[in-house]
């Protein structure tokens, strides 16, 4: 499948965009007029630069208000078209996107429109270019892909075809099924965009909220399936108008974009497996289709994976080993051992394995959280890495690389277990480990752990969820990464009110719930105005069958809890009619409480250590994540942080 991306998706100058698109590995690019006209680079130079980069200039766009015109206005449209076609010849772009008319003056007469498209086709033919007519969702009269295609067929000119854009089709509830009945050779261009479902007028929705495939709610596998059946063989291009993408790092956005297309291509190939196995093709790709076209879309596949079956380990990195390991001890963890060749410890309890390493030079995960750049701040502990148990670690690693992820290099000595990992967009190191057979994982032996059984009653049994902070620039990228690289599924997003802003929260989970990761949108300290603090802290939530006993033991061992305000407990009684003894116990142990239709939820939070805190949860059938309690936590953390910050300011 030939991949392309519109320059409008990306931040920066035209020149920066071309470089990023090429370095990400796209085959081609759509040039937006706006990007060219603000550039000092001549069209011929753009063409040469693209050729040097190995990029095809697939499309030039948009040509607006050029059709569906009153006859007295059409001559000027043809004049503009000639000028545009000349420019396209200099650029070397073969196809021009012609939008349906959005003006109140647009003409509704289909015969006239077909005739105008035919005459435009003649101008295009004179210049050796093609016109791809696209129905904008907010077009005055032409806003459906079927309608646009009927007009194209009626125009009956070899240089006039259809441009399909998934956003315009799906945002109006259009049915993509009709695509498979189109002659693929009459589809001149295809643009893909996903979007979250919203109640918003289609124009605002399209111009601000499009996202890459896999980052929203549209069924693009269905669109792709229809497209394959049509026999279309041209580029599949991304056209995403998105406020965050326009501000994010151009190279990262381009990599994210190509990841979305590769993932979609693979999903489509799987969805069409039985249909396509009937047709000849090379291994891992799809050959000629039912229409007998020799070059219908070829779909590449990725190494197959299933979602992780569990957590292998979490790795904390800290500048204060004492503080961090004390926290673990207070929660009932015991030192499992020291790594035989690295300065790393492992702490164990139940099925939970926490690797603790000391932060050294160049090991910071998020540079803006570096304590050395913030003299006077508390020592930092953070989630550095997450290990997952997967069926086939080598395949999962290969797949992640094919999806454009950067490998993590961990030095290992001969004979030591190989840790295969990649960087998540949020800076976490993601490791693929084998699903455990009998006994302890191989890597644990390097810590001198021979058996995980200890004879202690482990009150903590596993990891309930891990909450990872995402920067707003990379939130959608994070969702796609965890979807495509780990096969997690995205639940609906929620907004949690906090003192420094709404925190967007979205749970990524494996189908059986063994791995659950709420992603949280993290405003950074610098973006917080007067609020000087660390970014949104992350946390590991530990599962327990008796959270009250964990809390009691932790209290005896001196754990600093995040304290819960009395107002919260009063409200609990109002909400749930709890009896006084229960509430007294919750209060004594700093426990929070929630209930849903499935059951009850008891949990507590520790105070934040650096950029990290821990939560211990007891689910009695409950299926949520304590969203009602999160604002209480955010407010308590905010108060502590501003108190600590102002104390520091007094001291410095
Ligand atoms: O928002 C627009 O105007 C616009 C322009 C060109 C397109 O291809 C499109 O899908 C939307
Ligand atoms: Mg479009």
Structure, explained:
It is a single chain. It is elongated, with a radius of gyration of 28 Å. It has 652 residues and is an alpha/beta fold. Helix 1 packs parallel to helix 3. It is 33% helix and 24% strand. The chain contains 19 helices and 25 strands. The longest helix has 22 residues, at 250-271. Strand 3 (56-63), helix 4 (71-91) and strand 4 form a beta-alpha-beta unit. Strands 17, 18, 19, 20, 21, 22, 23, 24 and 25 form a 9-stranded mixed β-sheet that branches. An 8-stranded parallel barrel has the order 1-2-3-4-5-6-7-8, surrounded by 6 helices. It starts with a strand and ends with a helix. The protein folds into 2 domains: 3-277, TIM Barrel; 310-647, 2,3-Dihydroxybiphenyl 1,2-Dioxygenase, domain 1 (Roll), CATH 3.10.180. Bound molecules: 3,4-dihydroxybenzoic acid (DHB) and magnesium ion. 3,4-dihydroxybenzoic acid binds at residues 61-62, 97, 99, 134, 136, 165, 191, 206-207, 239.
